[in-house]
């Protein structure tokens, strides 16, 4: 392999990573703007609508699951459709957050968001640049995530704030590991399959996965800040 080929491959990889993180940042921005509008500008209208249509919340959650599954199982769709799906999912997530953040203090929300952003940036850089294979850590994190979900479902009925706080710390560790692993995983996928698949679609799928990691990290941090003494404004 000559120097031009090496430079071209590295340039292509850098372009892919920038595109993936760009899509992810755009999705977070869409959710943040949507959440702000729902919790501030259209607060009364949103609360009135969902109070009179309680099924709508479940509708949002179900539609989110359908969107993620559709994007995951139809990776050969056009980039425009994939990007539209990511944008729609971001709006729905922002709508959901616009409702739930109203029970938290603005200080806790801000601290959780800033902390999640800093952690994500550091972990993504680590996952992208480390030479250590993180696949083992990633598989362990996925197994731990399943256990965490089961505990959280049980805690819906127990309603224990101690369990919520304790497992939120565990959740931070899990999603921190997933952020690093997913960053490395999609980098490796580009290196191995970049010439065989639509690179933009791969970048969008990576952005979706990292977006989900970021959102869940934010939720765990928000639970921690609130559980350690946060109060609603």
TrEMBL record:
Membrane spanning stretches: 21-43, 55-73, 85-104, 110-129, 141-158, 164-181, 202-225
Main location: membrane
Lineage of producing organism: Bacteria, Bacillati, Bacillota, Bacilli, Lactobacillales
Entry-linked CDD domains: BI-1-like_bacterial
Membrane topology: Multi-pass membrane protein
Key words of the record: Membrane, Transmembrane, Transmembrane helix
Cellular component GO terms held in the UniProt record: membrane
Family: Belongs to the BI1 family.
Record-given protein name: Bax inhibitor-1/YccA family protein
Pfam families documented for this protein: Bax1-I
Localization of this protein: Membrane
